[in-house]
Amino acid sequence: MNVLFICNGNVARSQIAEALWNWHFGKTIGMASSAGVNPNYELADQFKVVMKEFGVPIDGHRSKHVNEFDLNDFEWIVTFSNEADEYVKAHNVSANHCHYDVSDPGWNGTIEQYRYTRDVIDMIVTGEWQ
Asked: Is the Cβ–Cβ distance between 115 and 94 less than 8 Å?
C-alpha cells in the first residue's frame, strides 16, 4: 500500500507522517511519501531534532510540492491541513482520502510543539488515535 501525506509547507506534519509511516511499516505494508500544497523547500530544524529523538531516519527527506506526484498512484491520501484537504477534493482522485486536523507547529514552532505534533501523528499513523 502506498500512502501520500499532504499538509501546507511539507516541512513538519506531512514530513513527520512520512518518516513515521516508513519507520513503522515501510518494510511490511508499503511506503509513504509526503508533499505540500505550498512547500517551503527547506525542512524545519525542529523536525530533524524530534525525529532523531525517536531514532527515525530522515535521510533523503526534502520538501516537495504536491504537483510532483500523480495523486491517483496512491491507495491512501491523508491530509493535515484544510488547504490540503480542499486540494485533494478538488482533484477528484481515486485514492481513499482521510483528513486529520493536526495543528501546525510552523516554521518557528518550539521543540515542545514539534514533539506534540510528532506524538499525535505517531498515534494517527499507528492507529492509536481516538
From this structure: no
What the block records as the C-alpha cell of 53 is 529523538
Backbone angles phi, psi at 51, to 5 degrees: -75, -35
For the question of whether the overall pTM of this predicted structure is more than 0.90, the answer is yes
What's the whole-number mean pLDDT along residues 92-109?
91
d(CA 111, CA 68): 29
The total number of structural domains in the chain stands at: 1
For residue 130, name the pLDDT band (cuts at 50, 70, 90). Answer: low
DSSP line for 80-94: -SHHHHHHHHHTT-S
Instruction: Give me the residues paired with residue 3 across strands.
Output: 32, 76
Question: Which CATH number goes with the domain that contains 114?
Answer: 3.40.50.2300
For residue 99, give the C-alpha cell. Answer: 483528513
Range of the domain at 62: 3-126
Average pLDDT over every residue of 26-32: 93
Q: 34, 6 in Cβ contact below 8 A?
A: yes
